[in-house]
Write a structure and sequence with these properties.
Elements (H helix, E strand, L loop, with lengths): L5 H18 L30 H5 L33 E3 L4 E4 L7 E2 L12
Antiparallel strand pairs: 1-2, 2-3
The structure holds iron/sulfur cluster (SF4).
Iron/sulfur cluster (SF4) binds next to loops.
């Protein structure tokens, strides 16, 4: 078998790296449209915390962490930040599969996939 030339090696490396980038990470082409999560209903009588609530706004809160303003919170782009959602936060008390109470935003319930800048990982 003939060994690769440097040029062939570089070409194949670039193609492989590009393919892996597109298949994984933020641009996961195969996951889009197939992994659409359905939001469960909040527990009876409880309303979701409004994202327009002054405290929620000050903390950059969104019921879906994907809607975070990445200009204000660029650290949210880091792959490790994906697991930083309300469900994993020390301030969160789970009520059902999709919702729970946040001790910092008490006026309603927050989604398990929410996030705000006061996030602190559960121990
Ligand atoms: S403090 Fe924690 S539980 Fe409350 S909104 Fe922020 S990330 Fe979610």
């Amino acid at each position: 078998m003939k060994p690769f030339t440097r040029k062939q090696f570089l070409k194949r490396s670039i193609v492989l790296a590009s393919t892996l980038f597109l298949l994984g990470g933020e641009w996961n082409l195969f996951a889009k449209g197939t992994k659409e999560e359905k939001m469960t209903e909040p527990p009876d009588g409880l309303k979701p915390v409004s994202e327009n609530d002054p405290t929620a706004q000050a903390l950059g809160f969104h019921q879906d962490a994907k809607n975070t303003d990445y200009n204000l919170y660029p650290e949210r782009k880091h792959p490790k930040a994906k697991s930083q959602v309300c469900l994993q936060c020390a301030q969160f008390t789970k009520l059902n599969e999709g919702w729970g109470k946040c001790s910092i935003l008490p006026n309603g319930v927050v989604a398990t996939k929410g996030w705000c800048s006061a996030f602190a990982k559960k121990m």
